[in-house]
Amino acid sequence: MLVLLFLSACTFGVPMGGQKSGKDESSPLKKSKYGNPSSYIVMGKRYYVMDSSKGFTQKGVASWYGPNFHGKRTSSGETYNMHAMTAAHKTLPIPVYVKVKNLTNGKTVVVLVNDRGPFAHDRIIDLSYAAAKKLGVVGPGTAKVEIVALDSAKNVSRAPVRVIPLKTPIQDPANMFVQLGSFSSEENAVKLSNELQMKKESAVLIKPVKTGAGAFFRVQIGPLLDLDEASSIQKRLKRKGYKNARIVIEDET
Fold it and tell me: Which fold has domain 176-249?
């Protein structure tokens, strides 16, 4: 009988076979109720989920996924949070912690695999935005990496970045931003955006809008997860001298 698996927005397909039972001794976490069928099919190809992650290592290309999937359901049944240190893998049992090393720059992070993917050719792991940013993958989009499964909870010392909890699942990508300015001149908007990036602010965007008063270019940071995150960023920006930083919620329609 076909068993429907909760798959994230970055994955799709119909898994085959029943759920595995029992605890994976190589994982510091209990196996997800969802996301661990014996096998599943995506784009006509069958993938077999591993019984154990013990001793697992792999080299290949990493990619990342961010705002377009933020707030959507992952294969484990959890809600994807692009600000958390997570990742997607095609065959590892989930959840499981893995260490990911960027072989180009030597940077290393620990992530929790809780999703399936990526299914693009030759890619072995899909990193969250937060993990990709730590590894230096956001700019180039992909990187050659080595991943090593961690065989016990003691190997996971602490979360590399602050994880923002999702109190309730959200169905659509967040439309909350911190806005720093709205300019009639695109040149001024670009100048502020470049200044923010030089001050180590990420997720800076310039959003062109048309209003009754004319065209404007809004400089914003986001999309953001919730009011707590937005408030934290707003306070940080004000400490840096951006006194006009304010939280905005925009209708995308």
Answer: Alpha-Beta Plaits (3.30.70)
